[in-house]
Design goal:
Layout (H helix, E strand, L loop, with lengths): L8 H15 L11 E6 L5 H15 L6 E3 L1 H10 L4 H6 L5 H10 L6 H18 L2 E4 L3 H4 L6 E7 L2 H11 L4 H23 L11 E4 L5 H23 L1
Parallel strand pairs: 1-3, 1-4, 2-3, 4-5
Amino acid sequence: MHFNILPSVDQRIHTWMQQQDKLTKSDKDAKFRFSITLSREFGCEAYPLALALKEKLEAHDPGHQWTIFDRALIDQIMVDNNISRSVLEKFGTKNVFYDSLLSNLDPHWTSDSEVYELMVKTILSLAEAGRGIFVGRGASVITSEMKRCFHFRLIADKEWRIESLMSRGEMTREEVSELMQEREKERERFINRFLGVNINAAENYHLVINNGKSSVEEMARTVIHHSLLHMDNLVQSKS
């Protein structure tokens, strides 16, 4: 549902590659060389927020482009690094015991642990380059030790999230409720197996925002203001 509002994967990869060319010519300590991660309860408006952030940050940061990294784009980058699409589609769903057993018996078997290791390296590398907006994929946990990466969590009560999802697609309340339950279980499995943290804990984020009480515009302004304050503090601490 959310992919309809984002530029194509190929377009975003092209934009990101252009940005890397510019980085070699720019100051490594540039004010806008940071990344943002967005974590959310399912149904919150992370993708509309990511688009709003991209537009506003590019207005503040003329001559540079910001890239939205979601599951589709990160998976494509991993495919380009020789992880097959079929392996990625099954990532996180394999039986842990048999996955470990087959990884020891079959030299051609790609285990979930190997996929996760590459995903971590990919996200860390992308976030370090700066000017990235990461949606999901545990990016807030993976990049938690990076000083130039700022983490935001979107929450809202269940009824608000159901209404929000219904307004964004042609789905009934029952279908939305089933989808929400399915996605929440999927995320819980992923978090428990690979991240080992409470993704809901406020201490994992620079700021937790109630999406039910804040518009996309308000959230975008808040995230940018908060991030730039942190960047100013980092610059001052070095001077």
